[in-house]
Write a structure and sequence with these properties.
- There is one protein chain.
- By secondary structure, the chain is mostly helical.
- It has two domains: about 110 residues, no CATH class; about 140 residues, no CATH class.
- About 80% of the residues lie in helices and about 5% in strands.
- The chain is built from eleven helices and two strands.
- It has a two-stranded antiparallel ribbon with strand order 1-2.
- Helix 1 runs antiparallel to helix 7 and helix 2 packs antiparallel against helix 3.
- The longest helix is centred in the C-terminal third of the chain and has 37 residues.
Amino acid sequence: MASDLGQRLTVAAIGIPVTVAVTYVGGPLFAVGLAVLSAVAVWETGRMLAARGDRFLYALGMLLAASYPLAALYLDAGGAWSVTLAALLLVVGSATLRIAPADRPFQAAALTLAAAIYVGGLISFGVPLREGFTDDAVDGTLFFFLPVALTWLADTAAYFGGRALGKRKLSPVISPNKTVEGAVAALLAGPSGAVFYGFVILPRLGDSLGAPGLLALGLVVAAAATLGDLAESALKRECGVKDSSGLLPGHGGLLDRMDSLLWSIPAACVFLLVFL
């Protein structure tokens, strides 16, 4: 137990400062950082799918996933869709040529595309969240870390709320340890955290949205984070694995750390694009 805690703290001590620094610099470095995270997470997804006997086109999936954050920085929405179309043709063509019909090439292509778009497409919303609302490096960093902070707060509230009050299972088949009471705690913590964040940490956000808007933002982000967590739990249960990989000692895999953020970052970005 002590060794596991030590590993967790070591990973956090390295990962948090690096993430903050890369986010602060922004621009191409930030997009490349998200591209690397996307590629690694898709590799982990392929390993999980392989555990249940599925074929996966690793190189193409990782390349496609990495392209989305870069497309989000340099291209408009139409450009991003062009990347998806090109990837569709490339992946399906490659699967048809490389995989024997008996080994289900179109299934391999579909799984590869789905994984790459799910991971890379969703995490690419971090680019407009960091770059799209301000030219100030500090405020841009704070905009990006808004859903990160609210997700952490919601996860923490769900854990302790579930331990203290949990009686009814939220989804017994997908994630037996999650409770309705824990989910309610998360949905209460999100809005509370958003109000604090908007008025204390990023006042321009509070000035623009006001208390009602911040409450709604926190609720949306907390709900999205909960669904993202359940989505990866469903995938891991279907594949029969406990963690997406052992890449991060004490934490499991990178995808295990990103599961909630894959939903909460797009949720926050879209909410702010609509209402800010």
